Structures are given as structure tokens and as C-alpha cells.
Amino acid sequence: MSDAMLPDMPFNEPEPDAARDEVLTAFRAADPDGKRMAAIFRSTFDQLYDGQHTGRYRWDQLFKTEKTHFGTLLEINIRKAFDDVIDEPADSDPLDYKVRGHHVDCKYSQRDGGWMLPPECFGQLLLVATADDARGTWSLGVVRASDANRNTGQNRDAKSTLNGRGRKQIAWLHIAASLPPNILLGLDATTIEAVFAPKSGQKRVNELLTRVTETRIGRNTIATVAQQDDYMARLRDNGHGARTTLRKTGHLIPGGDYEVHRQVARELGAVIPEPGEVVSLRVVPAAEADPWTTELDGQHWRLARKDETCHEPAPKLPSTKQAKPIVPEASDNGRLI
């Protein structure tokens, strides 16, 4: 990635700083591919949207005061998820974290380079973060708030910011990395309007699963659309849930909590849902010799083509009554999109 793509984040080799490098090494060892941290950024956005109770899923739907709370939530969520890296600070510690014996303050800004630095972090290490849900990106790095790295001017709260040199001194863990997708944010206006139009939470979930197929859809998305306490019940094959209703239009909805459902998606050559997710698939009868088929209800099935009409109801999924659910990895931070 070039400097031109992110002009506010210069890609120069930072000067030596042994403590900074120890902090970097600790986080890299615990999360080499950034999946754990990406899940934290995703869950923090979702936590702030509180879609289950508000129906919100976009940054511009938040109040200004809510947006300013993102940094506090992120700091707390990183500490909880990375308790294998971050030591519990003493009550007297002025900064957020202690990593490998080094004091570290966590700073978030919606704008690259906009981190506000209070006097207590001057000279200390900073874990600086930024994220953009609309672009689907996040960045995280470590820098020292030394005199040379800070602007000399301060606001009335005595807070400072990183200067141009300071931004060049950031040692990046990840930069413009991909966020787990915000499914609703990626839908066009017509689809969004259709999904949220029904007054019934069940009908909204049905509309979502009718229109958004072959895409992993997680708990948080279902919660935002259903806006009910028992939102996952909207999926059930119980006579009035989505699996029952949408079967009539050829929709098969395997979930990622059980391997027997994941295997159905795998045999169809479809995207495989992770624990806490479902995927809506349009299926049609197939010949036994056809590629990418699954056998259900004594018949072979394949994915329907986009221009193909489903004339027969979809089959029932394998029973999960005797199956143990798959437990998500701890790195998922307990939140799913």
C-alpha cells in the first residue's frame, strides 16, 4: 500500500524504540493475522449501534455524543479480549494498559491523525486506532508521545496531537485492514427499504433472507432487522419461522452452529456459515450425477441459478436434536455480524 492511498499515514521506518517494539511483538504474537482485533472493531461498532433495540446500522445514524463514546468502548473491549497481552493496571496507573511492563494509552480517532493526547500520556506509548465502517477498514499502531512527536500548541484542556513527525513514527500493526462486513451497510437503498418496511419483526427477517442469498448473515444483523429479544427464534423451522415460511419459495437456510448444516452448504458449493451465522440458499431438484449437490428428503438438490425459478419447496435441513452446537472461538469476542 502506498502513501498516496493514505496521505495522513506516512509509511516511513520509525526510529528505534525498544519498549514500543516489545508492545508490538506482544500483540503480533497474540493476533498475527489481525482477526481478533478486527472482531473487536466490528463488535464495538455493533455495540454502539445497538441494532436490536434501535434498528440502527450506520455511523451517520448515531448522535454526536454516542460517536465520542466509541473510543471508550474500544479501549474496554480490547482490554477484555486481549487479557493474555494486557496486564490489569493498578488503580494508581494513569494510563489504560500495561503491556510487558510498559504503560500504554489507547487512543481512537474517527480521523487519521486526530488523536487527542492529554498531559498524562506525554512521553508514554500510545496504541492509536482509527476505523471507518462505511469503508470497512481499521488501522492500529503504536507510537511514543514524545516532545519531538507532538505539536507544541495545546487546547484549553492542555491536550496535544501528533505532529507530522509523530505520525511518521507510528509503527503499524495493521493499516487499512478489512473489517468483518456490515451486511446491511452493503445493501442498496431499495433492498434496505424493502427489508425494513414490514411492521412485523418476523416478516422483516423473512424479507432479508429472501433478498440476501448466498451471503453469511450473523446474529447482529438478524437482531437489527428483527428488533426483538428472541430474534434468533425468527429463523426456526417451527411452523411460522423463516425456515418454514421460506421453504415454500425454495429457500434452504443452514446455520453455522451445527456441522450437519455446514456440511449441506459445503456439498452445495455455497459459502459456509460460521457459528452464530446463517446463509439463505435457493435450491432446486438435481440429478444424482450433477456436481455440487446434497441429498435431503431422499432427493438431490443444487443451488438455483440467479435467473432460475424455484418451482418446488426446499427440503428440510438435517435434524440437530442430537447434535452438539459448535462453540465459536474466543477470538470472535462473542459478537457476530
Q: What do these coordinates show?
A:
This protein has 337 residues and is of the alpha+beta class. The chain has two domains: 171 residues, DNA mismatch repair MutH/Restriction endonuclease, type II (ECO RV Endonuclease, Chain A, 3-Layer(aba) Sandwich); 141 residues, Orthogonal Bundle (Arc Repressor Mutant, subunit A), CATH 1.10.10. The chain is 28% helix and 16% strand. It contains eleven helices and twelve strands. It has a six-stranded mixed β-sheet with strand order 1-2-3-4-5-6. The chain has a four-stranded antiparallel β-sheet with strand order 8-10-12-11. A hairpin with a 4-residue loop joins strand 4 and strand 5. Helix 7 packs antiparallel against helix 8. The longest helix is centred in the first third of the chain and has 15 residues. The radius of gyration is 24 Å and the shape is elongated. The N terminus and C terminus are likely disordered. Keywords: Endonuclease, Hydrolase, Nuclease. This is Restriction endonuclease. GO terms for molecular function: DNA binding; type II site-specific deoxyribonuclease activity.
